[in-house]
Amino acid sequence: AGRMELATAPFHLPQLLRDIAAAMNPRAEQKQLDFMFEAAPELPDIVLGDAGKIRQVIDNLLGNAFKFTASGTVRFTVHPAEAEHVFFGVADTGVGLSEADQAQLFQPFQQASDGRPPEPGTGLGLAISQRMVELMGGRLEVESRVGTGSRFFFTLPLPVIAADGATALSTASLITGYHGRR
Q1: Residue 132 main-chain phi, psi, to 5 deg
Q2: Are 76 and 89 in contact (CB under 8 A)?
């Protein structure tokens, strides 16, 4: 409908990434692909962002990587970038994309066709993912060659809320009970 809003809140970044990777392991096993999840140890713990949209974008990118990779590897990489930004990347050894397909890939209802097996879909996943990444302050990009695979990546501003991982909220603001009758 062209309407999309952010639901920005503190979330535990490493846990979100582990959950995404764990959800993808069965797909990798089913297709007998090597799935590599690489999260830099220096990633911040608690950040401010829209965890739901981040997950939706990464799920879409990983889903496409598994869909168009018959053998080889799907790699999910996350590491800190410049000043409170985080880099997300999904690479595969799949069929790859021609330059012509790359030029129109992020348009609604467009699907890559050059040398690709027919796959079900509406051609909206990457267009919606691009819109979400832009809404969160980034840009979804692709690098690909036919026959060697594709790499989709983006960097998002994710301000750090608590670097020590203790809690995203100060103990003064935590509700631990109440006074008075029930």
Answers
A1: -65, -45
A2: yes
Cβ–Cβ under 8 Å, residues 104 and 110: yes
Rounded CA separation 53/133 (Å): 8
Q: What is the pTM of this model?
A: 0.80
Name the 3-class secondary structure at 68: coil
What's the token pair of residue 147? 């026959």
Which of 75, 88, 92, 9 lies closest to 43 in space, CA to CA? 88
**What is the Cα–Cα distance from 56 to 42, expressed in whole angstroms?**
23
Which phi and psi angles does 165 have, rounded to 5°?
80, 5
- Select the more confidently predicted residue: 105 or 131: 131
Q: pLDDT of 32-70, one tens digit each?
A: 999 999 999 999 999 999 999 999 999 999 999 999 899
Cα 93 from Cα 103, distance rounded (Å): 20
Burial per residue of 64-90, b for 16 or more beta-carbon CB atoms within 10 angstroms, e otherwise:
bbbbbbeeebbbbbbebeeeeebbbbb
